């Protein structure tokens, strides 16, 4: 299988079954389609995998290093040594960028990296990593400085890259969107799906707003929870929210959820990571998906919801406007943000009120919700299939090698 004339090594922190974010979904789906186009191998964290074309590296023993960023670099060194037979290295996120850069130096092959997020635009990570944030920032900056090409997952992300790293040659930043597996993500309305919804305490007959995401500053969950206090009390609220970045944001979100529950019925919090079929069922029986992010390079969760036939209310930031078509597949909530990298709204009260107003407008017309949901499914079918994205990625590979 594959074109043995071009050997590509994908370096990634996440790979099934260890996937916790959009970057992991991206690499898994990209690898799947690339296997029909080139000779691809995946190098990942979290230990061995059963597939012969995937090499998984064990992390060092807990406590060996005083900071987890150093443990990441330990795996990166192993990855770099494992790229000896590659014609081209393609790394994803800062976790694997250093491995890609070192492999490129070691074996004299081009290093391409995909930008799923940017450390300068996530300064709150200093809360998590302490001095490790300085190390992750150094690793990412070094990789961007020397990469043969940078792939941005949206035009919005491309602008962020050139702003955060002005030394990067604009001609070397290519836009290749994230995609969605349209066979896996699709509307489910059968009895089994309805049973799945009920298992989680959700009424499949009630108007429902859904949020799916990690509890991290960039997802804007505290603003969303405050906005929800103003929407129709008959609307059911499903929050599939887990994996908090820090105890502080976990406590803040927990407090806001408890306050919401004290004021209204039908607030369901799902804190575990749901398997895809269950999440598909929950999305399919919802009325509206909400993405309140204050930093979002593209937002795979929006693609997943749209593939399930859901309209979306989302913040007009980052790459979101390239996915959610305002007035066609959903509604964009305006936001004015600080340019200090945090994405914090300049007027948080205004942002919360605009979100509440947009949610109420969206929920006021069930027929329009249905029409926007159908348009959402059409949009992902026409613009975000993984087959097309895989072909576009190979075009970037060949362009780099042609230099």
Short recap of the structure:
The protein is an alpha/beta fold and 403 residues long. It is built from 14 helices and 13 strands. The strands form two sheets. Strands 3-2-1-4-5-6-7 form a seven-stranded parallel beta sheet, sandwiched between helices.
Strand content: 15-25%
Radius of gyration from the alpha-carbon trace, in angstroms: 21 Å
SS content category:
alpha/beta
End-to-end separation in angstroms reads 27 Å
The level of helicity is 40-55%
Q: Average pLDDT, to the nearest integer?
A: 93
Give unreliable regions as ranges.
none
Quick one: overall form? globular
Strand order of the largest sheet: 3-2-1-4-5-6-7
SSE topology string: EHEEHEHEHHEHEHEHEHEHEHEEHHH
Could you tell me the number of beta strands?
Answer: 13
Largest sheet: 7 strands, parallel
Number of helices: 14
Could you explain the architecture of this structure?
The protein has about 400 residues and is of the alpha/beta class. A seven-stranded parallel β-sheet has the order 3-2-1-4-5-6-7, with helices on both faces. Strands 10-9-8-11-12-13 form a six-stranded parallel β-sheet, sandwiched between helices. About 45% of the residues are buried. α1 crosses α14 (about 385-400), α2 (about 70-80) packs parallel to α3 and α7 crosses α10. The protein is built from 14 helices and 13 strands. The mean pLDDT is about 95. The two termini are about 25 Å apart.
